Amino acid sequence: SKAEMGHTCRGTINLATANITVEDSCNFIISNGGAQTYHLKASSEVERQRWVTALELAKAKAVKMLEESDDSGDESVSQTDKTELQNTLRILSSKVEDLSTCNDLIAKHGTALQRSLSELEALRLPPESTDKIKQVNERATLFRITSNAMINACRDFMLLAQTHGKKWQKSLQQERDQRIRLEETLEQLAKQHNHLERAFRGATVLPASTPGTGGSGKDLCCPAKGDLSDEDDDNNEFFDAPEIFPMPDVMGHKRTGSNISGTSSDISLDEQYKHQVEDTKKEKRTRIPYKPNYSLNLWSIMKNCIGKELSKIPMPVNFNEPLSMLQRLTEDLEYHELLDRAARCESSLEQLCYVAAFTVSSYSTTVFRTSKPFNPLLGETFELDRLEENGYRSLCEQVSHHPPAAAHHADSKNGWTLRQEIKITSKFRGKYLSIMPLGTIHCVFHSSGNHYTWKKVTTTVHNIIVGKLWIDQSGEIEIVNHKTGDKCILKFVPYSYFSRDVARKVTGEVMDPSGKVHFALLGTWDEKMDCYKVQLGTGDNGAEARPRAHEAEDSRVLLWKRNPLPKYAENMYYFSELALTLNAPENGTAPTDSRRRPDQRLMENGRWDEANAEKQRLEEKQRLSRKRREAEAARASEDGTPCDPYKPLWFERRKDPVTQELAHVYKGGYWESKEKQDWSLCPDIF
User: Fold this and answer.
1) What is the pTM of this model?
2) Which residues are in the PH domain (predicted)?
């Protein structure tokens, strides 16, 4: 049906882009140029040719439909069809009523005409008048016969239309009833599944939890670093809603229904922002408004998305946490002291151990965080100035929207610089979703000149369709010191139900340029990382000797351990101490800073309905800006005049001399603009 044109199921080949090739007299092949290929066999050459001709005609029609279709995607096809059908039925009904009225009028006037002519014939008139009257009478009789025939035909049409109309109405009602029954069944199944899951969790004996972790230290439900965006991107997915906890009356955060809805608040967002800014420089905040206990029916959202392209579905803030992707990227610096310690190391191999621990620590923030961050708008920025407290300051900017990409630069007076550009790509595999962050991370130490690079591992989101959402990290990270040639291989072991290994296990080896292993690393990406010195020796077979158990324990050094979560973190989106401070309003930040994003601020304050409306406004504003840029580029190409594509404000694209990759690198100027409070170059995105 037309409603299915907007989305496809697995195994579908789009005719508009299909390749149809003849193999031999009876066989032919249809493929999409990728993984999907059909080999078809006809009973004869004639039959094969009929199929190929029919498919080619259908392909031509599909290509024409594709060219004629608009790019709006705002209204589902099914809704259009429904409106069109209702309009057609309304017009048909009015036409049938008109025909019925005409039928009555023709019968009435025809009878009156016949009566008048009969009266004329009865009068005594001259002979020539009688002949004329007879002629008129014959014509009137013919007209009556024709009119009767037309009336009968119209009556038949009307009866037929009424009969079929009833059938159509009955069929439509049956379809509606069936759809309602299906929705109710699915909703009931979802409730039963949720009930069974809760009963199972209640019956399962859980291990003793560590303080401050809310009793779920080994819960498998942990979000990916760098979750996908939910706006009009090409890479958008559903994520299960996080568990919602009741809000205890502690720390002055008890809220009423009117507070949550925002109906009783007449203070503008700007005034709230100014009010919140006052104390930020004095001390960092240790709490945020508790997450409201809003119930969310996932099916009620999903059923309205049927027939829509996934990238066009506006996802509500109910699935989000009140931080942007730029702020989540900045959370990589939570354990910055690992890089401070690495900068003080004299041995490059020991330094590499701390860099490896820092690499693993960036995933620890994802353990309990099942909500996804806000997708940044193009040109959105986020600064974190901790020069006085921790010796570093950081800047992020959203440099691309399709595909979504963010550039990050951090400098420390303790002797290191970190920079990265991360793009997200994903592949849906049915039961799970693979998320591959693309881009290289660079860390340079000033005193030694050691330059390290590495890439992030693959994140797998399990139970996308049914079940409890949980996320795993898997793959290898190769950290290379481009100055000395030292190397570290980190292996993130994928979770297996049948494995006896500890969950989220990470192993690693630090080796010199010749390949000799000097340190072994062992730990988990959500708890800690240990380092063991490998005693270099020669065995009987000339192979490198591994340390025995007691020797390994003697040389063990704890490189990194995850900080405990703040008190009542389960009511505050499981934010860490750093995450709680990231969205705190600050004076002097750029007008494009994530802290100033209105939908995010409204969501943090518990006003989710207003946040959803504001989110849609911002997305629409961004879409209009993009269309305006595209129109300007099209006009420029027609006129032959040069047109600059979109360029980020604080980063510029350069070829990296070490990796030979094109990446966005910080070009300077932000902190100088902040000092002067000159933000004239900043775009109006909020």
Assistant:
1) 0.60
2) 1-60
